[in-house]
Amino acid sequence: HFYKRIKRKTMGAENSKAQLAQLASANSRASNAEQQVRAFQNGEENSREQLASANSRASNAEQQVRAFQNLEIEKKKYQEAKMKELLSEPWRKTAKSGWNEEELLQFRKEIMAYEGPESTDIKFFNVLLLGQVSAGKSSIINTIETAFRGDEMVTNKAVAGTADTGKSRTIELRHYNMREGNIRFWDTMGLEVENEGLDIEKVCMIMDGKVKNNATLEGTLDSKFVREAPKIKDKMHCLIFAVHSLKFAALDEKVLGKLDTIRYAANKRDIPCLVVCTAVDLVCAHVEEDTSNVFYSQDIKKMMTMVSERSGFTLNMVFPQRNYVDETVTKLDINFLAMLLFKQIVKVSRDTCERLEDDESDSD
After folding, report:
1. Is residue 106 packed enough to be buried (19+ CB in 10 Å), middle (13-18) or exposed (0-12)?
2. Contact, 334 vs 143, CB < 8 A?
3. I need a labelling partner for 281 at 20 to 30 A (CA). Which of 90, 129, 139, 355 fits?
């Protein structure tokens, strides 16, 4: 009986151990199951986040596609608006209209034939360039020089700026000689509002030939750059107001007032004034494609009429101009338009010199 009791206790203990082992195994399986449930829940949460992120990216992509499509539609409308039908007849007749190399060569010969009156000792006609900031005054010089020389590469004699800061980059009066063309261009600060930029008193002194080359135009003029007794060869013989074709409509009224005051001062001195509208290729797609369309373009005529009315200049004193900006190699159509302008500049400058000579003769 004693051994039987011991055996029963031993078997009970072994059964308890087995039950404990089973319980431990069950707990382990429960823990693993719980971990799997948590992993599944985490995975499900990550999946929801990934899905939300994917939906957000898809929405952004869809918005970008719509924005691109709208941009393409607007570009198409803009191009269609720019590509208006050309006029059947030019709105301005020109002495030469062939737009070919032969006529360019004839232009050069005619321009070289212009000389100042012998009694005045004039080697160069002085042309003063004024205008709004970033209108392309320096680029006008480079484009005319390029067209006149007839080289294959574009000239960069006058340093042209690129940043459109609203402030003038030129602070000195600088001249640029075109020896064969008998022209001396004078580049100045841009016309800005009120007391900023080039002031009218200095402009009048420059017109009278009292300011020498390389004079700093900011602040008070240095006396060593002031000429006390200027001659006809020192005075300005033509004024050019350079305006940007796309920006002139928004030009500040105070700058317009400056322009009008300077024009009045020039008229008192019998100095002719021309308005040159730069960047005409940005106004009309036909002209952007081929500059020879400039006098057949409705948009160019409309723009120049607006400039004439707002500036007070008659339309026949307003000229279109396309400057070399991005190009490094010359183009016949750009050269031809520049030579049309150059011929007019030289002609009116010659006329001014003759009037000044007559005035001196009358005073004697």
Report:
1. middle
2. yes
3. 129
Angle, to 10 degrees, between the axis of helix 298-311 and the axis of helix 253-268? 70
Q: Closest Cα to residue 128, out of 86, 94, 173?
A: 173
pTM (whole model) above 0.70? yes
Strands 183-187 and 174-178: antiparallel
Which pLDDT score, from 0 to 100, does residue 337 have? 97
- Write the DSSP assignment of 301-329 as a string of letters: HHHHHHHHHHH---GGGEEE----SS-SB
What confidence tens digit (pLDDT) does each residue in 8-45 have? 666 666 666 677 777 777 777 777 777 777 777 777 77
CA contacts within 13 A on the Cβ side of 8: 5
| DSSP SS3 for 226 | strand
Local structure of 187: helix, strand or coil: strand
What residues form DSSP beta bridges with 197? 191
User: What is the maximal distance between C-alpha atoms in the chain?
Assistant: 165
Cα angle, residue 118 at apex, residues 241 and 180 outer, rounded to 5°: 55
Please tell me the distance from the alpha carbon of residue 278 to that of residue 325, in angstroms, as a whole number: 11
pLDDT tens for 107-166 read 999 998 888 777 677 889 999 999 888 889 999 999 999 999 988 999 888 876 554 555
Q: Could you tell me the strand order of the sheet in which 125-131 lies? A: 174-178, 183-187, 125-131, 238-244, 273-278, 318-320
CA angle, 217 then 218 then 224, to 5°: 55
Q: Is 99 left (phi over 0), alpha (psi -120 to 50) or beta?
A: left
User: Phi and psi dihedrals of 119, rounded to 5?
Assistant: -70, -15
